[in-house]
Amino acid sequence: MAVRSGVRYLAPIALAATIAGTYVIVHDTVNSKKKAPTSQSASGPSAKSGAHHKGAKTARFYTVKSGDSLTAIAVRTHISLTTLESLNRHVDPNSLQMGQRLRLRR
Q1: Do 63 and 103 contact (CB within 8 A), yes or no?
Q2: What is the Cα–Cα distance from 39 to 17, expressed in whole angstroms?
Q3: What angle do CA 88, 63, 66 make, to 5 degrees?
Q4: pLDDT at 99
């Protein structure tokens, strides 16, 4: 009977390590890209970061974030839903996309 060497287990272990490493790198990259638009919109004049600062003009635009709806944006920015819809006639309220800019005032 032939003695089996432990070397034959190296290829599957190397493959598993490569797959795990690739997953970690891709997962980290995807998460950092998801966070990037949020941090950019937080530094800009968004409603969540304070569209109504004392002494500052109210924001003219709102950048849509993940999970936003037109109703939630109206509540968050203290603008009526009808006003928001009339200012953004080109926007389909059922298909808001992350990063999309909505007009809040004229």
Answers
A1: no
A2: 33
A3: 110
A4: 92
